[in-house]
Amino acid sequence: MAWETSNRRERLPANWAKLRQRVIRRAGGVCQGALEDSGQRCEATGTDVDHITPGDNHDLDNLQLLCRWHHTRKTQAESAAAKATKRAAIKRPHPSGRNEPMPDPW
Fold first, then answer.
1. Which of 3, 18, 33, 72 could form a disulfide with 42 if both were Cys (CB 3.0 to 4.6 A apart)?
2. How many domains does the chain have?
3. Half-sphere exposure (CA, 13 Å, Cβ side) for 90?
4. What ranges does the record give for the region Disordered, renumbered to this chain (predicted)?
């Protein structure tokens, strides 16, 4: 996540450092991401505490430990899905007046 342009840190609870440590201990310091080909658990060191369901639910059952690779991949997928949803919601008429959608601006 691009922390420089995000207000995410401001939205974390005051006890975030303690929650983060609990998640790391619970995972044994190992990434909880699954390897796609085998379905087995990733064995990389976990570095990022991730919200399983995006948003501000900081309950322990919504937090997992991921390695940088898995966290980046998950964040990119969530971002792409959010953009697709936003695109689908924008239904602008074609400037010609024909009943066609505008070209995708993204």
1. 33
2. 1
3. 12
4. 76-106
